[in-house]
Amino acid sequence: MSNDARKPKNSPGSTGGQYDTKPGGKGQDLPSLAEATQTPTNTNQRDANAKTKYAPDFETIINPSATSFEDIVRTAAGDFQDDFDIESATKDYVDEINKITNPLGVSVTESGKAYCSYNADIDDDAITEGVNNIDIYKILQRHDKQEDENM
Questions:
Q1: What are the φ and ψ backbone dihedral angles of 115, each rounded to 5 degrees?
Q2: Best label site of 80, 90, 104, 116, fewest CB within 10 Å?
Q3: Mapping DSSP to helix (H, G, I), strand (E, B) and coil, where does residue 93 land?
Q4: β-strand partners of 88
Q5: Where do the segments described as Disordered lie (predicted)?
Q6: How far apart are CA 62 and CA 129, in angstroms?
Q7: Cβ–Cβ < 8 Å for 104, 112
Q8: Kind and range of the H or E run holding 114
Q9: What is the model's pTM?
Q10: Is-contact 72 61, C-beta < 8 A?
């Protein structure tokens, strides 16, 4: 048997288990087995302010068939949509949602995306119950175009 060093299988310049043929090499060109000096990144440690998606379509928590918060507001307005400032009512509606969700660790955008902190312990039932108790008709009333004209 030879005293020459062998290159491990899949090592650079190796076809697997071959002898180091560099004259006088005795394995000098092989990778070192010394302890690595580079510290691997711990992916479990996140920035305390880092966010992740809680829900991509938060409006479906309120109404599974809704396509947007505006859709929910328009549905509530029914045949009287022209009597309300739907855009402002939708913004107000999302603000009301955030009054409930923010203390529970969730932020909701007007586009329907919801974010929370990584590894957050969110009470899904409290969020669902809270947002389903928002009085959307009261919000619509605040954005009634006819009341604005009478003032």
A1: -125, 150
A2: 80
A3: helix
A4: none
A5: 1-56
A6: 9
A7: no
A8: strand 114-117
A9: 0.64
A10: no
Assess contact for 72 and 86: CB atoms under 8 A: no
User: What residue type is assigned to position 143 of the chain?
Assistant: H
32 Cβ contact partners less than 8 Å away, ≥ 6 residues apart: none
Cβ atoms of 5 and 19 within 8 Å: the answer is: yes
Measured between alpha carbons, how far is residue 98 from residues 48, 71, 101, 104, 143 in Å? 20, 18, 5, 9, 19
Give helix then strand counts, H and E, for the chain.
6, 3
Q: What is the pLDDT of residues 107-148, one digit of tens each?
A: 999 999 999 887 778 888 999 999 999 999 999 999 998 865
Place of tokens 């009478």: 150
Q: Does residue 30 contact residue 5 with C-beta atoms inside 8 Å?
A: yes
**In whole angstroms, how far apart are CA 96 and each of 45, 92, 132?**
33, 6, 11
Residue type, 35: E
